Amino acid sequence: MKQNFAVIGLGRFGTSICRVLATEQQEVLAIDINEDRVNDLADVATEAIVADAQDEETLRSLEIGKFDHVIVAIGKNIQANILVTLIVKELGVPDITTKAENDTHARVLARIGADQVVHPERDMGARVAHHLLSPNILNYLAINDDVTMAEVKITSSAFVGKSLIELNFHQRFGLTVIAIQHGDNVIVSPAGSDVVQLNDEISVVGPTQAVEELNDRMN
Ligand code: ATP
Ligand code: ATP
Ligand code: CA
């Protein structure tokens, strides 16, 4: 489905959002106060324009209120970031995603009506730290404070060549295996008879502590 996106602020974060949306054939309006940033995206976005997004009249004339999604990716200038979020909210944008620089900023954004508040530097930093501590956890999603979904690489010979019945993840760890990836081949919702091989990537869901325990067994 084709939707309309406006990305305001074309730093590394906003630029990356524009590129992916454009690759996915979406309509993208890219806005920055800095002409060089805008020029870099001229061939990527549907439209790329130089404007100060803090100017309400400019956003009105661009009919920002008619966009399905607006992403406020202004970073260091927190005042501009907040003001722009407020203006696009008032102009009636139904879905607003704003980048926060810190927790206080995030609280303000939630209050003024940002639908999604994201912390790319904080979250990516956490991800890198987790990966350094648990290199066999390739990917994870915290479902809540206690439950995690994770992709774990099988590197321990104790697991290799055994079926899910033999490995007994449920009883031993409290984990449910939802997929086994073997090279390019993915078994979704595997059966008990499916066998795990060296370097397979298994997707599991269960208590966070159990995921960590499984990772420890791989070392
Ligand atoms: P990133 O981490 O994404 O690279 P950053 O967090 O360092 O970016 P900035 O570089 O401060 O954040 O801001 C991102 C972009 O937002 C910059 O290209 C900047 O020119 C643009 N920007 C700042 N203020 C405005 C504004 N009022 N209107 C439009 N664009 C703006
Ligand atoms: P972030 O996006 O993570 O907030 P940034 O991409 O905007 O950061 P900077 O603020 O330029 O990057 O740099 C990050 C940190 O690195 C800063 O705290 C800065 O003081 C520190 N730093 C920069 N140069 C050096 C240096 N030569 N030695 C040690 N620390 C440095
Ligand atoms: Ca930054």
* Cofactors, ions, other ligands: adenosine-5'-triphosphate, calcium ion
The helix/strand class is: alpha/beta
Radius of gyration of CA atoms, rounded to a whole number = 22 Å
Number of DSSP strand runs:
13
Termini Cα gap? 44 Å
According to CATH, what is the topology of the largest domain?
Rossmann fold
Q: Could you list the spans in which at least 5 consecutive residues all have pLDDT below 50?
A: none
Task: List SSEs in N-to-C order.
Answer: EHEHEHEHEHEHEEEHHEEEEH
The CATH class of the largest domain, by name, is Alpha Beta
Helix content: 25-40%
Mind describing the biggest β-sheet? Answer: 6 strands, parallel
CATH superfamily of the largest domain: NAD(P)-binding Rossmann-like Domain
Write the CATH architecture name of the largest domain.
3-Layer(aba) Sandwich
Q: How are the strands of the biggest sheet laid out side by side?
A: 3-2-1-4-5-6
- What would you call the quaternary organization? single chain
Number of helices: 9
- What count of domains describes the coordinates? 2
Coarse shape: elongated
Strand content: 25-35%
Task: Note down, in words, how this protein is organized.
With 219 residues, the protein is α/β, with parallel strands linked by helices. The chain has two domains: 4-121, NAD(P)-binding Rossmann-like Domain (Rossmann fold, 3-Layer(aba) Sandwich); 130-218, Alpha-Beta Plaits. The chain is 37% helix and 28% strand. It contains nine helices and 13 strands. The chain has helices at 12-23, 35-40, 56-61, 78-90, 103-111, 120-133, 164-167, 169-173, 208-218, and strands at residues 4-8, 27-32, 47-50, 69-72, 96-99, 116-118, 137-142, 147-153, 162-163, 176-182, 185-188, 195-196, 201-207. The strands form three sheets. A six-stranded parallel beta sheet has the order 3-2-1-4-5-6, with helices on both faces. A five-stranded antiparallel beta sheet has the order 7-8-13-10-11. A two-stranded antiparallel ribbon has the order 9-12. It is elongated, with a radius of gyration of 22 Å. It binds adenosine-5'-triphosphate (2 copies) and calcium ion. Calcium ion binds at residues 75, 121. One adenosine-5'-triphosphate binds next to helix 1 and strand 2.
